[in-house]
Structures are given as structure tokens and as C-alpha cells.
Write a structure and sequence with these properties.
Strand order of the largest sheet: 4-3-5-13-6
Structural class: alpha/beta
CATH architecture of the largest domain: 3-Layer(aba) Sandwich
Number of helices: 11
CATH class of the largest domain: Alpha Beta
Strand content: 15-25%
CATH topology of the largest domain: D-Maltodextrin-Binding Protein, domain 2
Largest sheet: 5 strands, mixed
Order of helices and strands: HHHEEHEHEHEEEEHEHEHEHEEH
Number of domains: 3
């Protein structure tokens, strides 16, 4: 197939503009050259990509597939340039970390900042994901280090403790439960709730716990981030189950009432995962060792 990146960029520009001349101008090409390149694309794939009309062009079904695929390819290429660019400016290593919502939002920002301060020539890529996906990514070598909840099966991966945490119930100020110190999930499972978006590990976990009790959790609103959850509770939208650490670090911890959960599953410790610590590169091993020391340090400082 005889086409290049310029052809793909041109096709996306023409598709977005709905006009061959405007798309060509956006790529700094003459209309005649652009027309030739589009024809070459159509010849390469053996099917028309554009329908020429009096006022412009529109995509065929094949053209829509090409447009979407070209966008994806160009985006991946831009990411590749972004990934490689730091090496030209002195970066000597890269570490990939996948972590669940709790670790990503609460614990890792400070820990990774400290690590990067001490290792200025290392770049860390951090991806937030559900714990089962993190286990798979580490097992397949897509991630060098994973951070997951303690209740997730980790197979043959090497595991180290990271942080201790627990789920708590937060309720609006003035709520009837506000005078209590403790509660069981079964007592509030029928109440309206605020939650993180579906797909996050904690959302799935809470839905499953409600199902075990024979109920479907009444989620009134889903938001991004624990601070937004706590803000919605403070405004009276509903209750929420969140990690205790998220309340401690919230911008509004005194605007909600926090109750301990008596359920055994409320303890939500975090663990580190690697395939084999001995085979990690020096930068990843240094980060893994630093993170694995965190649980002892923070337990001692309490």
C-alpha cells in the first residue's frame, strides 16, 4: 500500500473540513496535490473514500473507518514522540505504574513526587485502572509496578504491602446518623448514595457488597474524585462510602460526619505488585523498594 503519514493527515483534515480545498490548505498543500493524494489512498484501499458534491465532500462508510483509524494512528504517533522526547533531554530511564483509584488520588502523588525529586532523570507514567486490570497488566509486562486493593487475587505475582486504609461512611451534617460512631453497611444500603463513576474499583466493590445483601445501591449521582464525592455528601445529596484517607485529605473534612464501618470488609489495605523484583530495571526497583517501605513508615508515624 503506497501512502504515507501526510496522506493520513490530509484525509483527516479534509474529513473535518468537509471540503478538499480547505483541508488541503490546512496541510499546506495545493488542491491538485491533495486530490492526487486522496486518489492514491482510494487506490491503495480499493474503494472510494469521499463523495464529491457541489459544495464539498462527504465520507463514504469506508471513509469514516479510514478517518477514525487515521486519527488513532496519528494520536499514537504523537504519543510515541512524547514518550521519546525526554530521552533527548537527558532522561535515562522510565517506570510504568498502574494503580487503583485510592492509590492514584490519595497516596501516590506525594510518594511519586518524592521519588522524582530524588531521581530527576527518570520519567514515571502512571495509569489509573481497576485492580483486576492492574494484575493483568503487571502479569503481561505492560506495567512494571501495580498498586491494588488487598482483596484482589494476584496469582503468581510478587506482593508487598503499601498502605493501610479502611472504608468509612460519610453523611451530611445534621443527618440522623450523625450522632453515632459506627454503622453496618446493611443499615444504610437502602439510602441514596454518591459514588465514583462506574468502572472504578471502589464503585464495583460497593455494588457487589450491596448485591450480596440482596439490594441494588441507589446511586443518585456519580462523580470523578473523592473530593467531589465528599462535596456532594456535604451538600446533602446522599451518603458515601470512601477511604478514610480521602476524608483526612479532603478540602472539606469538617463539612461531613464520618462513621466507622463495622463490616469486616471495610479494611482496604493496598498492595504493590511486580512480576519479579529481581528482574526490574534499576529505576523501577528503586521505586518499588521505596514504596514498599512506605507502610512501615506511615504506620510508625501514626
Amino acid at each position: 500500500m503506497r501512502y504515507d503519514l501526510t496522506d493520513l493527515k490530509l484525509f483527516v483534515a479534509v474529513a473535518d473540513a468537509g471540503n478538499l480545498s480547505r483541508g488541503a490548505a490546512g496541510c499546506h498543500l495545493a488542491p491538485s496535490s491533495a486530490s492526487h493524494r486522496i486518489a492514491r489512498l482510494e487506490e491503495a484501499f480499493g474503494t472510494p473514500m469521499l463523495i464529491r458534491e457541489a459544495r464539498g465532500v462527504r465520507l463514504t462508510a469506508a471513509g469514516e473507518v479510514l478517518r477514525d483509524g487515521a486519527r488513532h494512528t496519528l494520536a499514537r504517533l504523537e504519543q510515541l514522540h512524547a514518550d521519546l522526547a525526554p530521552f533527548a533531554s537527558g532522561v535515562r530511564g522510565q517506570v510504568s505504574v498502574w494503580a487503583n483509584t485510592n492509590a492514584t488520588n490519595i497516596f501516590l502523588p506525594e510518594d511519586l513526587a518524592d521519588y522524582l525529586h530524588d531521581h530527576p532523570h527518570v520519567r514515571v507514567t502512571l495509569k489509573e485502572a481497576a485492580s483486576p486490570d492492574i494484575v493483568h497488566a503487571v502479569a503481561q509486562g505492560e506495567a512494571q509496578i501495580g498498586v491494588v486493593a488487598s482483596d484482589v487475587s494476584t496469582g503468581a505475582l510478587q506482593v508487598a504491602p503499601y498502605r493501610h486504609d479502611r472504608l468509612v461512611l460519610v453523611v451530611p451534617p445534621g443527618d440522623a446518623l450523625g450522632s453515632r460512631a459506627r454503622v453496618r453497611f446493611a443499615e444504610v444500603v437502602n439510602a441514596p448514595f454518591v459514588a465514583l463513576h462506574a468502572g472504578t474499583g471502589i464503585h464495583t466493590f460497593l455494588m457487589n457488597k450491596a448485591t450480596e445483601l440482596g439490594h441494588h445501591l441507589d446511586v443518585r449521582i456519580q462523580v470523578h474524585g473523592f473530593d467531589a464525592v465528599i462535596g456532594m455528601v456535604a451538600a446533602g445529596v446522599g451518603y458515601a462510602l470512601v477511604p478514610h484517607s480521602s476524608v483526612q485529605r479532603s478540602r472539606r473534612p469538617h463539612q461531613v460526619v464520618t462513621l466507622a464501618l463495622e463490616d469486616d470488609w471495610a479494611r482496604r489495605d493496598l498492595r504493590l505488585l511486580v512480576r519479579d523484583a529481581a528482574t526490574l530495571n534499576a529505576h523501577a526497583r528503586a521505586l518499588f523498594e521505596r514504596l514498599s517501605r512506605g507502610v512501615a513508615h506511615h504506620s510508625a508515624s501514626r
